[in-house]
Amino acid sequence: MEALFHSIIIFVFPIYAFDQTALSDSYNSDLWALSLASFTAMMFIVTFKLMVYERYFAWPNIFCILVLSLGIYFLYVFVSNETGFSNTHASMGVIFSSSVFYFTVVFCIGFAFFVDYGKSAWITVF
Hints:
- By secondary structure, the chain is an all-alpha fold.
- The chain has one domain.
- Helix content is 76%, strand content 0%.
- It has helices at 2-17, 31-53, 59-83, 92-96, 99-125.
- Helix 1 runs antiparallel to helix 2.
- The longest helix has 27 residues, at 99-125.
- It is flat, with a radius of gyration of 16 Å.
């Protein structure tokens, strides 16, 4: 049930956040901005949930989380933008400089965790 709720948050909120939004003076939001915000929020939500459920933190765990998970994702995004094999048409710089992008990602992550842990606290207390 949590996965369904997370998918609804990750899909619906960016659609409304990027609807009729200009990311800069000459760049309107499009499918690239929407999909990048959704997938970035999904990467962080999954990574943070794994970190919450993890019992012990050692340096290999932190290395795998920060470098092999999130680091490779952001490296891929920027390399695919610069090389052109993803047809992003140099839009990643504009998207990553937009406050709407960061607000969308942070809101999705925060809302997902607020509801998850609010539900856990409700079950624990009552």
